[in-house]
TrEMBL record:
Entry protein name: BioF2-like acetyltransferase domain-containing protein
Pfam families documented for this protein: Acetyltransf_6 (PF13480)
Domain of life: Bacteria
Listed PANTHER family: LIPID II:GLYCINE GLYCYLTRANSFERASE (PTHR36174:SF1)
Length: 355
């Protein structure tokens, strides 16, 4: 055990492969208002199995043996991008989760000690409270969350007028339809659409196993929706459901999606689907500031809010994995030109090192 700054706390490393310890960690996450799917063992182990980035879970434990705080960390390794401890890898949220502000500092200090023991690695926290002095805060992304409306008609009226007109065109298109579920056909169609979408953006696609792992581990708290133009999949998204909030996560569309307005239809139908599942909020995920994605989400009736992340490094130098960085622009332009089968073959080997 590693000693914390509070006399009544001990900081220990949980074994997420131990059923009882994973269950205790999951119960703590689910009991916290600030808990997210990205703190849960399901996410941590799903990423580990699919990408090879080992999962570690630091826990602050009180005298009674109850968990008082968690710091989930993935050890992300890449020949291109270097190594780091990330909370949590491939997530829009994460960071320290504690039931008392006084528990944050001991977990942050334990994370730093662990990073040093792992070879002086840097730490990247995707959300959570400020870890304290010595950590660098940055805000490059915006989040988009709003309550779901009472019914489909009210949801339509919640969309600003200009964008609502585009959505009405999609609703009136008899060739467009959506399917929702967890079956193998939807999984394949989702990956095909998502891989095409990220290739067109110049981004390597994640391993297909990552999506299967999340569906398997989250059970009925995750599903896929695919929009079809006739029998052709044109838009698709994998959604997580947590604490009354629907979180469409890995989504995209092919080139024709814009013309067909299939993304508009898919997300509108997803809102109705989430309402039927008992959700009260819709989290549209993060987007880079001043990006086209951010503008599109705002036009759908979602007001942006800054997302605050933190980094720490023993030498004060964090990894550079920003796709807007000058050194990556030429690579991104080349990636957009790759044949899809080639991009899907080599993309997962690159994407698993991004974190």
């Amino acid at each position: 055990m590693m000693a914390g700054n509070r006399a009544d706390l001990a900081i220990t490393m949980l074994d997420l492969h131990d059923g009882a310890q994973a269950e205790a960690a999951d119960a703590f996450v689910m009991a916290q208002a600030a808990g997210t799917p990205f703190h849960r063992p399901a996410w941590m182990l799903g990423v580990e199995r699919a990408t090879g980035n080992h999962a570690h879970m630091l826990a602050a434990v009180g005298p009674s043996g109850q968990i008082r705080g968690l710091l989930p960390l993935h050890h992300v390794k890449s020949m291109l991008f270097g190594q780091a401890l990330v909370s949590s890898a491939f997530a829009v949220d994460g960071g320290i989760l504690a039931d008392d502000p006084a528990t944050v500092a001991p977990l942050a200090a334990a994370g730093q000690a662990f990073a040093r023991n792992m070879g002086d690695l840097s730490i990247e926290l995707h959300g959570g409270p400020s870890p304290g002095e010595g950590w660098q805060a940055y805000s490059e992304h915006l989040g988009f969350v709003r309550p779901l409306a009472a019914d489909d008609d009210a949801e339509l009226l919640a969309v600003p007028r200009k964008h609502r007109a585009e959505l009405r065109k999609a609703l009136a298109n008899p060739s467009l339809r959506v399917e929702t579920g967890r079956g193998s056909k939807l999984v394949r169609d989702h990956y095909r659409v998502y891989a095409t979408s990220v290739r067109n953006l110049g981004t390597p696609v994640f391993p297909a196993r990552l999506f299967r792992e999340m569906l398997d581990r989250f059970g009925d708290q995750a599903d896929i929706m695919v929009a079809y133009d006739g029998d052709r999949p044109v838009s698709a998204v994998l959604t997580l459901y947590h604490g009354g909030t629907a979180m469409p996560y890995w989504g995209g569309g092919i080139h024709d999606a814009r013309r067909l307005r299939s993304n508009e239809l898919m997300y509108y139908r997803l809102m109705g689907h989430a309402r039927a599942k008992g959700m009260h909020s819709f989290d549209f995920g993060r987007s880079k500031r001043d990006s086209g994605q951010a503008a599109w989400k705002k036009s759908f009736g979602f007001e942006p809010r800054p997302l605050l992340y933190h980094t720490w490094s023993p030498d004060g130098k964090a990894r550079d994995i920003d796709p807007r960085s000058d050194k990556y622009q030429r690579r991104i332009d080349l990636w957009k030109k790759l044949p899809l089968p080639v991009a899907n073959l080599i993309g997962p080997f690159i994407a698993r090192g991004l974190g």
